[in-house]
Amino acid sequence: xxxxxxxxxxxxxxxxxxxxxxxxxxxxxxxxxxxxxxxxxxxxxxxxxxxxxxxxxxxxxxxxxxxxxxxxxxxxxxxxxxxxxxxxxxxxxxxxxxxxxxxxxxxxxxxxxxxxxxxxxxxxxxxxxxxxxxxxxxxxxxxxxxxxxxxxxxxxxxxxxxxxxxxxxxxxxxxxxxxxxxxxxxxxxxxxxxxxxxxxxxxxxxxxxxxxxxxxxxxxxxxxxxxxxxxxxxxxxxxxxxxxxxxxxxxxxxxxxxxxxxxxxxxxxxxxxx
Amino acid sequence: xxxxxxxxxxxxxxxxxxxxxxxxxxxxxxxxxxxxxxxxxxxxxxxxxxxxxxxxxxxxxxxxxxxxxxxxxxxxxxxxxxxxxxxxxxxxxxxxxxxxxxxxxxxxxxxxxxxxxxxxxxxxxxxxxxxxxxxxxxxxxxxxxxxxxxxxxxxxxxxxxxxxxxxxxxxxxxxxxxxxxxxxxxxxxxxxxxxxxxxxxxxxxxxxxxxxxxxxxxxxxxxxxxxxxxxxxxxxxxxxxxxxxxxxxxxxxxxxxxxxxxxxxxxxxxxxxxxxxxxxxxxxxxxx
Lengths: 274, 288
Known about the structure:
The complex is a heterodimer of chains A (about 270) and B (about 290). With about 270 residues, chain A is mostly helical. Chain A contains 9 helices and 2 strands. In chain A, strands 1-2 form a two-stranded antiparallel sheet. Chain B contains 12 helices and 10 strands.
């Protein structure tokens, strides 16, 4: 039941995007997210959508995997869209009026616009995690934060990166563990998906306590194993895998710059469709 | 009358994703009488997936499970009641202990059944006795117990539900020989006294030979053999192909046979072999 979680999962494949430098991927993802917020008007949003679609096609991961994320956020999408439809008042006559509810064209436009924007945000960030393994991600974050060493925070950067990679590495383990404990308690007749709120919270105890206990145990085991292999923090450590920028990274950066330029141009000289 | 029956059981993990794996394919078997049934198979042969189907923790992709001749997923059956009838002790069950005291933890299952306090208390004492847990241990926190005691407390938690069908997934893994013997004995006692069906998943062929009446052999997600223990172990070559083996003592017996010793069939344990060899030596002595 818990094996449907795909957010933050890595899908190994051999695509241009998979092979791109993780540092570039992180920075560009952040850039595209900013661009999505800069985009004003449907033309700009359409260009962003086209860019995102091209990108996910390049990842060679089935489009179905991206659409699956929709299931997790459809409630948020619906709520924001609904709020916009009902709250935004336009200049002209309302399209629909009933007692205190009135819906304007602007409201519907806004709702669609925001829903598409949220959807693109999700797609572009899952493209990053789908194509970048957790180790690559943390490695890249460590590199990106390395300027902090200049102000004497070098150790903190390494510790942060190590914490992140351990946390990421243990997500599947903990999911598996939760699944096992849930099965075991269900086999003893525990009911988890019925009853009122208090009953449900109480029903979580037989899962939370063993999970907490085994997490602590795992943390001790891991710390001991790391010490046995002479782990002493980041001092003097070199990397087995060096990151190098290549042509494809520049091509990606170039693509995002074009996207940024067109979105900014469209802000200055808007094209109005309707 | 059929107590437990699987018909065309198939389960596919991650249908529709790149990770699609058929865990078990078309498993059919029927258990008609109480007894101790061993389930053996190489790691990844589908044993764990199979047993989770038997109490409805996993809904099969296709196929049916019958408990007491009733389809457990039919509309009139409540899946929770099925779980009280078919108890499962998972691998390393000590990691599922959660209550403040061992007593409360063992009572978790009976309380979920909805028994009254007196009955719950009686069952806790009964189950604790079955697995050799003393009274003073019952009032300790489960986290203070030793590894073997924790394991026994967890098993008691399932025994206290008095399931007609008891399934144990490698209950002796990682225990010392003494702890292993205590648990195996508790399981055999439970089977006999309750006249229950016990399914024991095990990697120890010695244990299987010693306690099992019948053996189910899983390989590559399919049920390959199902028969009396002696019959299954007589197909040594086939078992080897599946990455399994037969008990050491049976290997010795078959080597002796190859060298011309006239030993009878059905030797499963060291005790059997000892008797047969002594008889052979005695007879040989008389003939000579």
